[in-house]
Amino acid sequence: MNAEIVAIGSELLTPFRQDTNSLYLTEKLNQLGVEVIFKTIVGDSREHLRGSASLALSRADIVIFMGGLGPTEDDLTREAVAEALQLEVHRDPEIVAAIERRFASRGWKMSANNAKQGDVIAGAIVLPNPNGTAPGQWISGKYEGREKIIILLPGPPHELRALFDQQCMDRLRAKLPPQFIATRVVKVTGMGESQCDARVAPIYKRFTDVQTTILAGAGEIQLHLRTRADSLDAAQQRVDQVVEEIEAELGDCVFSDNGDSLEQIVGYYLQMRNATLAVAESCTGGLLAERITSVSGSSRYFLGGAVVYSNQLKTGFADVPADLIAKHGAVSREVAAALAEGIRKRCQGTLGVGITGVAGPTGGTPEKPVGLVFHALASDRGTEVIERNFPGDRKRIRWFATQQAMDMVRRKLM
Fold first, then answer.
1. pLDDT (tens digit, 9 = 90+) per residue, 130-159?
2. Is 257 left (phi over 0), alpha (psi -120 to 50) or beta?
3. First to last CA, the chain
4. pTM (2 decimals)?
5. Which domains, from first to last, does the chain contain?
6. Checking DSSP bridges between strand 254-256 and strand 2-8, what pairing results, if any?
7. Minimal CA–CA distance to 356: which of 408, 413, 397, 304?
8. Helix, strand, coil percentages, rounded to 5, for the chain
9. 225 with 243: CB under 8 angstroms?
C-alpha cells in the first residue's frame, strides 16, 4: 500500500516555517511497509483543501492530513475533508465536554469557538489527543470503489507524534498486509554526479524492483536504495546485493554505505589507526575543525589547530617561513605544505592538514582565481598537496575545501 501526507497551514508556504511532521510520519509508515508517494502542502483555503483532499484520495491508499484541527476560523480540515468525501459533520457533545473539563482543570473558561474541535466527520473514529484539545479522526472505507484509510491529525509535533504512536500504529498494522521496506544509503566522493551515474546505472537498472535515487550536493553523491518484500530479510538481501555491486564498481570513492557522514568515517579511521590530527586553516576559517568536532568523542583523535588567516599567524602559529610566503604567495602549494607540516609538529600529531585558497567573492587574480584551493596532508612519510578549483560562492567553496581535506585524511588512513 502507498500513502500521501497532506500538511495544512498557510505558514508552511512562507520562508519561516518548515514541515517536519511528514518526515516523522514517513519513517513510521516505512516501518509498516508503506511507501509515501506524495507529500502536499496546502494553505488555509477551504477550496484548496477540498481540491487537495480529492486529489490525494484519488491516488493514494492511505491519506494523512496534518493540521487545521484547531478552534479558529482558518482551521478548515474537517470541513474540507468531509466535503471531499461527501459526508456530513456533526458535533460530538462528549468531546466538547471533555475540552471544557480540560480548560476548567487549569482554571480557565473555554471559549465558545473551542467547541468547533468537537466536530466529527460521519463514520469517523475519534482519536483522543493526550497532549491537546483537538482529537484526531480515523476513517476507513471505500472511496470511488477502492478501500481507503483517512487520518486527520493535529499539527503541533508533540501532539501529532503521541497521537499517531498511541492511536494509529496498531490500527494500521491490523489493516495492512505483511510487507517490509529495506533501505540503504551509499555515499560517494571524488567524482561528479554524471560520472557516478554513468558507472552505476548499468547496475541498478538490472534491479527493477529496487528504487534508486541519486542526490548530489555538499561535495558528495548519495545513492538512496529501497525495495519492498514480504519479509524484512528478503528486502534487505535484495538491496544489499545492489550495494555490493555498486561498491565493487566505485571502489574507494565510496566512503559510507550505512548513511554515516564523512566526519564520522574520518573519526573511525583515525581511531582504528590510533592516529591524531591537527589542522591549520586559512580560507576555510575554522570550518574543517568545526566539522570534525561536530562528532561526539572527537577529542580522542582531534588535537586542535589554528585559523591562520593572516600571513603573520601563518608564520607565528604554523611556523611557515616568511620568505616562503613572500616568494610563492599565501595561496600556493608550498605554503599549504608548510602549514600542514608546521601544525603537525606544533601539535605533535600523526597527521597535519593545511588549507589555503581564495574563497571569494573578491581577492582572485588571473593566476589565482576565486575557487583555487590548495590542500596539504603531512605525515611522517612526507607531505601530499592537492590543488582544486571549486565553482560557486564563498560558502560553497569553503565547504568543498573541507570535504576535500577530510577525504585526503580518509584515503591516507585506508
1. 999 999 999 999 998 999 999 999 999 999
2. alpha
3. 43
4. 0.78
5. 2-175 (3.40.980.10), 180-256 (3.30.70.2860), 262-413 (3.90.950.20)
6. unpaired
7. 397
8. 45, 25, 30
9. yes
